[in-house]
C-alpha cells in the first residue's frame, strides 16, 4: 500500500506541475535555486518523556515555475542526541516537495510544502546498534525574504515523518541563491 501511495503522490505531482506550467508562462521562468540551511531536528517518540534533538545540515535545490509554484528537493544529514543511554543519529533525510508560494510584495514570500520524504536513523546503546528507514507524506510552511536580486533568507518548519510511534520535525534557517 505504501508503494501505491508513493506512486500516486509522484504521479499527481507531475500532472499538477505539467498543467500549471502549461497554463502560466511568465518571462524569467523557470528559475532555479539552491540553498543551505542549519536544520534543528526533533524526534518525538510516543511514550518517552524526553525528545531527541540535534542540529544538522540541509541542502535544498528547486525550480520556481512561476510566482506561485515551485518544485523542491531536500537532502539533510547530521546530528545526534542521547537520552537514557540511547543515542539517535540522523543518517540522512531526502524529500521531494511541491511548494505553493504567496507573494507579499516584491521581496517577501510565504510558502507551504507538500511532498514525500525518506529518513534513515541509527539507534545505538547498551552494546547494540540498529538502523532503520521510514518514509511518509511530509508537509511544512515558511517564509523567504530577499536580501538582493539573487539571494534570499529562508526559514521553515517541516514535519518529515508522522506515525503512531513517533514524529520527526525540522526547523530550518538558511540562504537561497537564485540563478
Description:
- The protein is built from one helix and nine strands.
- It is mainly β and 179 residues long.
- It has an eight-stranded antiparallel β-barrel.
- A hairpin with a 4-residue loop joins strand 2 and strand 3 (69-77).
What's this entry about, in short?
With 179 residues, the chain is mainly β. It has one helix at residues 2-23, and strands at residues 31-45, 52-64, 69-77, 80-83, 86-103, 108-125, 128-146, 151-162, 166-178.
Low-confidence stretches: 17-25
Lateral strand order in the biggest sheet? 1-2-3-5-6-7-8-9
Could you tell me how far the N terminus lies from the C terminus, measured between alpha carbons in angstroms? 39 Å
What's the number of helices? 1
Summing up helix and strand content along with how strands pair, one would put the structural category as: mainly beta
Global mean pLDDT? 88
Cα radius of gyration in angstroms = 18 Å
* Broad shape: elongated
Percentage of residues in helical conformation: 10-25%
Offer a few descriptive terms:
179 residues; mainly beta; 8-stranded antiparallel beta barrel; 9 strands; 12% helix; elongated
Amino acid at each position: 500500500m505504501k508503494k501505491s501511495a508513493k506512486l500516486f503522490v509522484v504521479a499527481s505531482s507531475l500532472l499538477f506541475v505539467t498543467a500549471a506550467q502549461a497554463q502560466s508562462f511568465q518571462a524569467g521562468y523557470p528559475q532555479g535555486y539552491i540553498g543551505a540551511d542549519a536544520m534543528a531536528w526533533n524526534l518525538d517518540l510516543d511514550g518517552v518523556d524526553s525528545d531527541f534533538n540535534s542540529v544538522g545540515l540541509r541542502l535544498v535545490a528547486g525550480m520556481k515555475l512561476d510566482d506561485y509554484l515551485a518544485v523542491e528537493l531536500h537532502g539533510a544529514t547530521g546530528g545526534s542526541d542521547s537520552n537514557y543511554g540511547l543515542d539517535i543519529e540522523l543518517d540522512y533525510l531526502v524529500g521531494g516537495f511541491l511548494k505553493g508560494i504567496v507573494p507579499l510584495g516584491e521581496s517577501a514570500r510565504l510558502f507551504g510544502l507538500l511532498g514525500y520524504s525518506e529518513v534513515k536513523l541509527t539507534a545505538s546503546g547498551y552494546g547494540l546498534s540498529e538502523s532503520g528507514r521510514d518514509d511518509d507524506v511530509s508537509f511544512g510552511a515558511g517564509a523567504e525574504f530577499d536580501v538582493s536580486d539573487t539571494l534570499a533568507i529562508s526559514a521553515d518548519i517541516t514535519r518529515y515523518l508522522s506515525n503512531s510511534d513517533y514524529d520527526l520535525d525540522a526547523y530550518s534557517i538558511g540562504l537561497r541563491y537564485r540563478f
